[in-house]
Amino acid sequence: MKEQKRFRWSGFSYTTRLTVMFALIAAMTALVAMGVVSFVWEEHFKTYTTENMNTLAETTARRIGQSYAKTESLDDPATISPAVQASEMTSGVAVRVVDAQNQTVYDSSAVVEEVLGGRRWYQSLEPLDPSRVATAPIISEGKTVGSVRIWVYGSETLMRQPDQVFRQNSYQAMLIAALVAILLASCIGFLFARGLVRPINRMSKTATAITEGDLSARTGLRGEDEISRLGETFDEMAEAVEKDRELERRLTTDVAHELRTPLMAIQATVEAMIDGVYEPDEERLNTVNSEVQRLGRLVDALLKLSRLENRSTPMKEEKVNVGQLIAGIVATHEMFVADSGLTLNYHADDDVFVLGDPDMIRQATANLISNAVRYTKEGGRIDVTVGKGDLMASIAVKDTGIGLSPEEAKMVFSRFWRADAGRNRDVGGLGVGLAVVKEIVDRHGGWVKVEGEKGKGACFTIYLPLYAEEKPGWPAVGLGRNGQKPQKPQKPPKKPRR
């Protein structure tokens, strides 16, 4: 036997579900409203019809009392004429007049029951339940001479046939109104759902297009509502993905170029020495060695960045005197900077301590200095400064090099990105140095700020949380023992978009 398909709400489209929900809400609202109105209406309508019958009975009794004052007899047709008129003018209503001895004088509902000895015996249809009968005494000159009794045929609430028809028509009108409300709610829900789902479908189609390789696909959503902001964020994400893919393509080109050049040089030199074209002297071996070192640096940089990003490199947690640490780095780079024809200046505040890995901080600062040397022309200046703020320590490397534009500042920390002016082999590196800097600083709970102007130089500043000695009741400022980033004590400047 085939397995029967179970009803699953999730199997319907979002538009269908939302339309059904609107219809159900409208139906529930209509049912509640009809129930409340019916309850209130029944009570008030019952009271209204009862009061009408009581008023009719009192009016009829008063008129009969006035006639009785003239005729002094209830048997006189002129006396009970108001009762006759009431029964004839009000459809579905029976009127009965009895005297003081409870003898029937007039009964519009009486029917002949039997005829015995030439006499007719009448049977009244007056209900036995007194609540179904409106009664009013007939008073003449302060004396009760009888009473008038009025009831409605076939009704337990003194409700006449027109009143019953009116009530029934009212209920029908409420039911029709409920159906119309449900229909309108369904239409509104359908239109609302379509409007709500349309941008979601656009994002879905855009995501599908991106998955299929069209990285230029965008939702194009704009607005102030949540879905529009989601669409804008989605487009920003897609743009970032497209840029990352472009960077990966550039990486492929760069790596191929960087690897091919030294490999071809090594291959050509070795083949020439094998063929006897070149002698395996010191000069040829130095050429091969320099190219091998270039390949080693390339592989080492890629491996280091990968380990940092994957958090596979353990990080030490030591109290670091930043001024002394950076002073050592500056000392080791003085000759390198001088050979490039540049001037290196250094200044540090006293007692600047952070909690972190000194090797990583040394690596990040060395990368910034190397980057400054690479993009600063001969005769320029590099300033390295260590500062101490209220909550953060800063390491600034400022140069007078080629600078960078605001657009380049947004991309400068991206992996494998290099300024166009530095993409040649003689000047530019592979483009992973600043990415390594950012990963190191992120792991220390800090951030990197870049400032600069095209043609006037740039300044890279590392911010790290200051270290404070533990005191009773006061936690130390720095990285936690679990290796997690601490909460930043102040809001950082806006980071460049990766």
How many structural domains does the protein architecture include?
3
Which range best describes the helical content: under 10%, 10-25%, 25-40%, 40-55%, 55-70% or over 70%?
A: 40-55%
- Fraction in beta strands: 15-25%
Side-by-side strand order of the widest sheet = 8-10-11-13-12
So, the CATH homologous superfamily of the largest domain?
PAS domain
Rounded mean pLDDT score? 78
Shape: rod-shaped
Just name the CATH architecture of the largest domain.
2-Layer Sandwich
Major beta-sheet overview: 5 strands, mixed
Domain HAMP: 194-246
Catalytic activity: ATP + protein L-histidine = ADP + protein N-phospho-L-histidine
Pfam family, one: HAMP
Domain Histidine kinase: 254-468
What layout of secondary structure does this protein have?
Layout: H1 14-71, H2 77-89, E1 93-99, E2 104-107, E3 111-116, E4 119-123, E5 134-140, E6 143-152, H3 161-211, H4 226-275, H5 282-310, E7 318-321, H6 322-339, E8 343-348, E9 353-356, H7 358-374, E10 381-388, E11 392-399, H8 406-411, H9 433-443, E12 447-453, E13 457-465
Parallel strand pairs: 8-10
Antiparallel strand pairs: 1-2, 1-6, 3-4, 5-6, 7-9, 10-11, 11-13, 12-13
Structure at a glance:
With 498 residues, the chain is of the alpha+beta class. It contains nine helices and 13 strands. It folds into three domains: 11-169, PAS domain (Beta-Lactamase); 218-313, Signal transduction histidine kinase, dimerisation/phosphotransfer (DHp) domain (Helix Hairpins); 315-465, Histidine kinase-like ATPase, C-terminal domain (Heat Shock Protein 90), CATH 3.30.565.
